[in-house]
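Data deposition worksheet. Section B asks for the primary sequence of the deposited chain exactly as it was used as input, without tags or linkers unless they were present during the calculation. Section C holds the resulting structure in token form. Section D is free text for depositor observations; keep each observation to a single sentence. Incomplete worksheets are returned to the depositor.
Section A, Depositor: J.P.
Section B:
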Amino acid sequence: MLDYLASLAVFAGLYALLGLGLNLVWGLGGMVNLGLAGFFAIGAYASALSALHLALPLPAAALFAMVLAAAAGALLAVVTARLRGDYLAIVTLGFAEVIQLIASNEIWLTNGTDGLSAIPAPGRGVLSPLGFDLASAAIVWTVTILVAAALGRLAAAPYGRVLRAIREDEMVARVAGKNVLAFKISAFAAGAAVMGLAGSLFAAYDGYVAPDSFDVLVTLLVVLALTAGGVGRMQGALVGAVLVVALTEGTRFLGLLLPGLSALQVASLRQGAIGLFLLLLLRLRPQGLLPERLRVHPIDSEEAKT
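Section C:
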């Protein structure tokens, strides 16, 4: 049971890290990015290949994964610079599908659908399974909290305020003299780097990466986590990730509470329970559990008269 809980903690941390990267692009910049599974895959494969073929330690492999994912994010931002809303969402979702297809078909690089296995990680083979899971959970959550703190400082800095201005009205930000394209590219690159870091940690923990690990369900869960936690606030990504993992895994035990149901009925009940809970949450808390706090500067009475 402890192994199971430690594993859940690892995946909750990974979803939180992905949510932080998405929050920088979507929550602050207002740019819908549904390609996070693609950046997640790029980070995982880059880290796995560098560890297997170049014998890089995890920190170096993670750095390589972040650089490669950031470059892909910057390129995607340049290509989609004129797109907004639904069009941007469709293109970024297509990007993730393309990355998954490349991972499935470029056998010389990714080993195709068989995936890459025996990926080295600190402590694997030395620690007990429980010890490895606990150590991995500690590493993942330490990294996640540090990234959340760094992005929180960035969001409160002038850079974050410019991203919010672009989110609210891109034309006004442009008129104010801000280089909107440069800010978009940098936000996409930084968000993709965080997602690539999550992919690197996933590859090291799981020891195996394959194309089916990066399907659209990953994107759906992370978007749900960020929406439930609170878009625009870094703490919201952390809370939302824990909530979504608790929901998706906690409902597995409904069969024990309601004996006599078939496996298909339990699966249907799980989906209904998760959907109902999220609907109620979004109905009662449309801004999420931890909504974004915007600073409103009061207008001086003398300035108001003029």
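Section D:
Residues 129-156 form the longest helix (28 residues).
The beta strands are 116-117, 208-209.
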